Amino acid sequence: MFDLATHPIARRWPARHPDRIQLYSFPTPNGVKAAIALEEMGLPYEAHRVTLSDEDVKSPEFTALNPNGKIPALIDPNGPDGPLALFESGAILAYLAEKSGKFGGATTAERYEILQWVMFQMGGLGPMFGQMGFFWKFAGKDIEDPRPRERYANEARRLLGVIETALDGREWIAGDYSIADMAIGPWLNALNFYETKEQVGWTDHPRCVAYLDRFMARPAVQTGLKTPPREG
């Protein structure tokens, strides 16, 4: 337990509304998951812009909250046993679903079906898509050896196939709309940013295409994708 007012994070990102959930994030595919969840669940929160520069994420103030130095991170001043600090977007989604009683499944079986897809995104979709982006769009594209690009594009295509199969007869990945969709949707949308839709055969996955369209049409998603703003 800690006091938000005296926590090191408050020196750099002071809370104007300390009674609300404090979100420390940036609009990346991982960062927007928490903002989308907060918007969907209607939980009062205050968003703080933490850029991906070492000056922010590796600062002593931020690493006092998340020793891994990655966004997003969160403080709930009204946690179950007092103020609660969390990092890792999957843990944040699970916590917010439990706190709000929304989008986490109505039964134990539903809860674990949803969580398995959150873990699928955390362990597969996010890391593989992220590496694909690095080797196709960013510094890795200058490496002459084509094998890294091929490896991650092939794995991304395989993972899309898993989602395509799972969506057979379903609008959402685990039945009803859930935190699993809030985890997966932003990473499918990242294919636009990485400019790799052609490499993964996006149009060969019509269920994924329709799924992302449904996801992006949600007002809470549109707000969450811009929270906090990319520019200060």
TrEMBL record:
Gene3D superfamilies: 1.20.1050.10, Glutaredoxin
InterPro entries named in the record: Glutathione-S-Trfase_C-like, Glutathione-S-Trfase_C_sf, Glutathione_S-Trfase, Glutathione_S-Trfase_N, GST_C, Thioredoxin-like_sf
Domain GST N-terminal span(s) in chain numbering: 18-104
Residues covered by the GST C-terminal domain: 107-232
Top-level taxonomic group: Bacteria
Similarity field: Belongs to the GST superfamily.
Record-given protein name: GST-like protein
Taxonomic path: Bacteria, Pseudomonadati, Pseudomonadota, Alphaproteobacteria, Rhodobacterales
